[in-house]
Amino acid sequence: MSGSPERDRPDRRGALPRPAPDPVPWWRDRRVLVRCAVGAVVLALCGYLALGSGWGSIRYVTQRCADRIWERGPADECTGVSDGGFVFGELDDVSAAIAKENRRVTRGSLPYVTVALLIPMTTDETDPNRKAAVRDQIRHEVQGAYLAQRRMNDRGSPAVRLVLANPGLGSAQYAAVAEELDEMAKSKEDNLRAVVGFDMSEENTKKAIEHLTGDLGIPVVGGPITASDLTMPGLARIVPPNEDQAEVLASLPDDANVFLVEDTRPGDSYVDTLRDAFNEKRPSGALESEQYRSSGGSDDDPSLAGDFENIAQNICQSGAKDIYFAGRPPQLRMLVLELGSQPCARTKNSFRVITGSGASTVDSYVPRGDLDEWRQALARVTVEYAAVGHPEAWANSKAPEAEDARTEMKHLRSAAAGLKDADLEDSRLMTIYDATRTAVTNIRRQAEGGKRIPRLDEVASGWHQLKSVNKIKGTTGWICLDNQGNAFNKAVHRVRLDPKWRTDQKLDFVDVAWPEGEPLDPTCTAPRR
Hey, which of 78, 119, 193, 346 would disulfide with 65, CB 3.0 to 4.6 Å? Predict the structure, then answer.
C-alpha cells in the first residue's frame, strides 16, 4: 500500500491535504544565498582587518609608522623608505633638508629619478659614548647623500630625488625594505634607478646587495664596504678593497718578523678578506698567527681579556714590533690597551699595529672615563690604518688627480658648513657623497642628456663606462671603474691615531698611496689582466 493512513485521512471538509513541496536546492534558495553573501563579506572583512595592511586594518592601525614604513622585527623598529617626511632615529635636521629639496625637485619642470640611501639608521647601543658615535656616523652618511643630491641638482638632468631606506638594526629587515624599493623602481612616478650605501661588510650586507642586484635588478653603489668578495653584476664599488689596502700597508713593516692577530669568527667578510690579504704579504717563515674568536657584537667581549693578555705576551716574546690586525674595532681597542700596559724590553715598549679601514670607528669604543689609559697606550702603540678618505689628503699632493680632488673638496667643505654637526674626518660623509655622485653620473649618462629616464638594466650595465674621460672626480680621488665595477688603483689614505686623542682631532694624516705603486694617470683605465 502506498501513502500513510494519517496523511491520506480527509480533513473536516472532506478534502485531502496537498502534498509537501519538493525541497529547493540550497544554491537556488534566495535566503541561503543572501546569508552566504553576507558571511563571505564578513569573512573577507575579518581577513582584511587581520591580515591586510591597508587603511583600517589591524596592521595599519598598530604597525604603520608612515607611508612605506612599518614596525618590524623584535624591537618593533620603524623600517622602510622615507622621502624625509618621516624621521628615522635622530636625523631631524638633515631629513627636513632632504624633504625640502625633494619638494623642489618634484614641483620643478625637469624629469627626475629617485636614488635611495640604504643604511641602518638607528642604533640599539646603550653605552652613551658608543650611542653618540654611531649616531654621528649615521648622520654623516645621510649628510653626504644629501649634499651630493644638492650638488648634482645644481646642474644636469634628470633631477635627483633622494629617499632614505632603513633596513633596521644589522640590516635584518633588508628583504621587506627591498620590496618597497622594487615597487618604487617599477613606479612611473618614483622612477627609482639606484641604491647607494651599505657601510658594513657583513653577511646581511652581501645578501641585501645580491637580492637587489640579482633578484630585483636594481643597480647599487657601495659605500665604505671593502670586503674583497663583494663583487657582483650590477654593483659598483668606489673604495679600495681589502687586498688593495693590504698592498699599500705591506710597505709599512720594518722587518719580516711581522705578526698577525686575527678574529676567527665566521661570517665576517671584512675580517676574512683582510686576514687573507695580510697573510699573502707575510713571508713564508713568519710565525703562526695569534687567534681569538669574538662574539660579533658591539661590546668589548670581556671574556676575551685573558686571550689578549696572552696575545700581547706572545708578541713581546717574539720581539715583533709590527702587528697586522684583522678584526673589528672593539677588539682592536683591547689589543692596543694590552700592548700599552705590559712592559716589553725586547721591543723597548714600542709597537705598531697596522690594520684596515674598519678602524675608523674605534673611537666609539673608548669610554670617556678611560681616556687617560687610552692616551698612555697610544704613547707606546702606534696605530696606522688605511682610510677610504681624509679631508687633508690632497692639500699638498702633486698627483694628477689632486687638483680635481682639491676643487671638489673645497665645494664640499663650503656646503657642509651649512649643516649641523657635519664632520669630514671619519671619511663617511665624503664616501657617501662620492658614491651618490657616482650613481647619478651613471644614470645621466644613460639618460641621453636628460631626454629620457633610463631603464634599470641600462644603469646596471653602465658602471664600467665610468673611467677615462668619464671618470668621477671625487673628494677621495679619481674613481675609475673596471669591467667588474670595482675602483681601479683607488687612492688609499694612510692615517694614524693621534696619541693626544683630542676631541676635535683624533687622526693624523700620513700620506696617500696607490695599490699599483704609482698614481693614476689621466687615462684612468685598468690594464688587461
Answer: 78
